[in-house]
Every structure is written in C-alpha cells, then in structure tokens.
User: What shape does this take?
Amino acid sequence: MTDLDPAIAARLTRTADGLVPAVVQQHDTGEVLMLGWMDDEALARTLGSDRVTFWSRSRQEYWRKGDTSGHRQWVREVRLDCDGDTLLVRVDQEGPACHTGARTCFDADVLRGEGAADAAEEPGAR
Amino acid sequence: MTDLDPAIAARLTRTADGLVPAVVQQHDTGEVLMLGWMDDEALARTLGSDRVTFWSRSRQEYWRKGDTSGHRQWVREVRLDCDGDTLLVRVDQEGPACHTGARTCFDADVLRGEGAADAAEEPGAR
Assistant: This one.
C-alpha cells in the first residue's frame, strides 16, 4: 500500500519490476537533466512534497535527490504520458544534476553530434 | 549480432530484456516529445541513418518512427548518459510526436501543475 491516489495508480503502466521511468527536465531552460525510476510510493512522495524522490534500482531503496549531495530537485510540474508508462518531472535543479558534477547526465558522451546527419545519411535514404 | 559499434555496445547498461530507454527531445525548442526503447540494433540503425528507430515492446518489432504516421523524427544528436543506461536523442520532429495527434506524449495528463508547489508543501518540509 502506498499513499498514491488510486485514480493515478490505475493509469500507470509499470515495468515487470513495478517501476516507471521519470524524465527530469529543468523547467525554464528545457535541459534534460537525467532519468530516474519511480514506483508508486516514490511518485506519491514526489507529488506530495516539494522534492523529487526516486527508487534506486542499484541500491534498492528510496532516494530523495540531493539528501546526500545537496543537489536538490524542486518539483515544478509532473506529467504522465499518453500510455501511462513514462513520467515527465519538471524541476528547478540546485547545482549539478549528475553525480559526476556535470550539469546534466548527458553532457559527456556524444554518440552522434549535431551536423553529422549529412555524413551519416545513406544515398537515397530520403 | 548487430551493426552497433562494439565500443558503444560495451558502454551500454541494458534492462533485463536488453533495452535502453531513449528520451526524445525536439532539438531547438527543448520539448520532451516522448520516450521510446532501443536495443543494440535499433541504436545502430538510429546512429547510421537520419531517422529514429525504436524497438516496440508491445509489438515486439522494430519501429522506424513515422513510417506509418508520416510523423518522422530526423536525428540531430544522440547522447548516452553517465551510467550508460539512458539515451537522449535530439531530433527534428515532423508534425505531432504523439499517436493521439498531440505535439508531445506529455501534453494531456498533468498530475501536478506549475505553481502547485506551495499548496503541496507540508509545514516544515524545507
């Protein structure tokens, strides 16, 4: 049992381990900061307070972002997608979102860059 | 076997069913459009062409976004996060991203809105 509103719980489509991915976005700049996971209880805590709580798959425990690092995420908006299987959490991020110290978890590893489209395009692909 | 660069494949951390979530973002406005799933082959196809390909969990098949709907996603940038378990795909989206006809898959269902932070905040929570 969790404190999640049953009307919301009924709309969720969870993975086999009972989780829903949560995309975290900086509310004003639009930066995608990270992706975390929530079970019903983590979502209830996030909706019912001003801080974001995830379920940590690696540590198997609840994780209120910033409690250890100080890099808190203040909830501005929470949305559910059309299939009920993904959350979009818009926040005000204090400091870096990534444990590496980078602003976002996507800063370091570019697999394919802007402007590479022409080079990668195969003849006749369009 | 897929065509995915082994150096990239080695950096991926996949779910139990061999997938990685891919956050899709409009490259210029920053809108989060949707979340899809990729296996190694879908990622290889996305990196090697100008269109985004997902693995459809419901249909258990590859799905090049827009082939049916015409709402194609043109790849601008692909990034991998710090843990190697999430992709960020920046695209130029043709038309609506959502099968409902909405611009994004997050347009319809606001669980908690902007400005609700004060109302939801419990006394002493800060």
